[in-house]
């Protein structure tokens, strides 16, 4: 891999720094005497990616080529680590997708480098309207250790995160079993009671998936899953900050309650992200409408069907909507989610040299990307 020197502005100090990367690892960080308007960040980390630029991990036709194309699209957005996210589906479909992603990791070094695990969002979520979002009701079912083991057999142990609703009787046992296997468990799409949420956290759940989304438009004021998740400091929370999933004042309150250190940004992007507006039929949501204003809805309704924003757009929207500093928004898209990916997303000695340089004008314009110290051509087809 050799040695590379990378210079740019530290977003926290606005002063130029120089990184030295040797054999894919950061070996030196120092001040630099250079004139630049490019900011430097760790590569972005996204725990929830259903697809992007036409590449769909929930398609019945997912292939090695699908994953290779998706990784190229992610790298072009500065995302150097991400979790392909499979939604609720029949077991056969889940296993088929896991086999395809596993095969892609074996055949493409960049896929292997960018995709450390797969995130299963469902199928053990609420079946109730509103709570389940765009997940198909017929695919929702109680958690099963036996089924989980079949997923791992199909994917050679690739499932690293599972989002579920802990309203099922066997939820605590299931969560504990997964955590003992080194799998992260998140709470989402849930109508569970505060007590059931507490039991899930006691069993080892550590994250709330897109908190304050995956719920009906009308809910009780007090005894709902949101407040217990927000109040429990053992839970971190991910947020979709695309300007549609959460209004600015709601996102501001959520971040103040959780604190930056326990907050993560996810894109929740689907394959239509980066595609022209229009009406489409997709595996995620069926018939959906991608609107000019950047909102993706189930056709004929206002119910969101995922996000068509990129993670850099979510970083920018977070700054715009809440007024927090850029460096805090970046932390929520790098080192914070990186804790669920074995410490990725850091500018630190000994860290993998995943680095992004970008221009900041209130929006992020990616200039350069390095993956494990290798400069990536983000303009390749």
Which key features would you list for this structure?
single chain; 381 residues; alpha/beta; four-stranded antiparallel sheet; 28% helix
Topology (elements, then pairings):
Elements: E1 3-9, E2 16-22, E3 25-31, E4 39-42, E5 44-49, E6 51-52, E7 55-56, H1 64-76, E8 79-87, H2 91-107, H3 109-114, E9 118-121, H4 145-155, E10 159-164, H5 171-180, E11 184-187, H6 194-203, E12 207-208, H7 225-231, E13 236-239, H8 248-258, E14 263-265, E15 278-282, E16 286-290, E17 296-298, H9 311-322, H10 326-331, H11 335-338, E18 355-360, E19 364-371, E20 374-375
Parallel strand pairs: 5-8, 8-9, 9-10, 10-11, 11-12, 12-13, 13-14
Antiparallel strand pairs: 1-2, 2-3, 4-18, 6-7, 15-16, 16-17, 18-19, 19-20
Helix pairs in contact: 1-2, 2-4, 5-6, 8-9
Outline the structure in words.
The strands form five sheets. Strands 5-8-9-10-11-12-13-14 form an eight-stranded parallel sheet. Strands 4-18-19-20 form a four-stranded antiparallel sheet. Helix 4 (145-155) links the parallel strand 9 and strand 10. Helix 1 (64-76) crosses helix 2. By secondary structure, the protein is α/β, with parallel strands linked by helices. The protein has one domain (43-343): TIM Barrel (Alpha-Beta Barrel), CATH 3.20.20.140. It has eleven helices and 20 strands. It has helices spanning 64-76, 91-107, 109-114, 145-155, 171-180, 194-203, 225-231, 248-258, 311-322, 326-331, 335-338; strands spanning 3-9, 16-22, 25-31, 39-42, 44-49, 51-52, 55-56, 79-87, 118-121, 159-164, 184-187, 207-208, 236-239, 263-265, 278-282, 286-290, 296-298, 355-360, 364-371, 374-375. The chain is 28% helix and 25% strand. It is globular, with a radius of gyration of 20 Å.
